[in-house]
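Input sequence (220 aa), recorded before submission:
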Amino acid sequence: MSLKNKLKSIDLTSIEGVMIDIDDTLYRYEKPNEKAIKACYKSIKSTNLIKSISLDKFRDLYINYRLAITKKLSPQGVCRSRQLAFDNLFNDFQIPQAYKLALRYEKIYWQSFYKEMKVSVEMKNFLVDVKKHGLITCAVTDMQATFQVEKLRRLKLSKYVDFLATSEEAGGEKPNKKIFSLALQKMQLSKSKVIMIGDSINKDIKGAESFGIKAVHYQA
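Predicted structure, token format:
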């Protein structure tokens, strides 16, 4: 069965709520991320902030510094911070007041990222149908709440999402049961009354199922 048909096969009359992942479920992450990295690189080149650096080299540095922050601060939501990754990167290049530049480049990153996002039409139609059935919805997502709220707003999906459960608030990333427990608490529903939909087999599907929640795999 195709992923698209998996959504159509869900019996919305048998449940009362839907948990849903954001990244790579409501939209595709790869293209906005690449566009945002290029926007940061363009600014660095135009200001000569880091001399004689190629796009490929900058991309590798950015990825490595993000991975380092994620490893250091996991499982907190802040482990996904672009600002902290940029701060460490600029510090290691001995750039003065790296923390101020880090904030600036986080803004450059997200401004470009948001502009490039494209909502999954299948998922939007599914959420419209979910709300027509009067079901409760909760976005269950890693990362800081501020950026995930803005993604929902930019994708024009926030009116279909009743609650938001983030790793920042839960104190643990998927597949940790803390984030699924937080979502249930906000929805005020039992495990048997909800389903989880997401792109990651390990985080979304196995994470939910290990906590006793039925899950459906879907990738935008």
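Checked by second reader. Residues 8 and 126 are 8 Å apart (CA to CA).
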